[in-house]
Amino acid sequence: MYALPQLPDDRRPLPIGIFDSGIGGLTVARALAQALPNEDFVYFGDTAHMPYGEKSVAALQAYSIKITEMLLKQPCKAIVIACNTASATAYELVREYVGTRALVANVIEPTVAYLAGTFAGKRVGLIGTRQTVQTNAYLRRLQDQGATVELHSLATPLLAAMIEEGFYANNVSREAIHTYLSQPELEGIEALVLACTHYPLIKPQIEAFYQGQAVEVLDCSVLVARRVAQALGQHLLLNPKQTPGTFRFFVSDYTRSFEASSRLFFGQEVHLELYPLWR
Ligand code: DGL
Question: How far lies 153's CA from each of 198, 214, 221, 272, in Å?
Answer without folding.
Answer: 17, 19, 19, 34
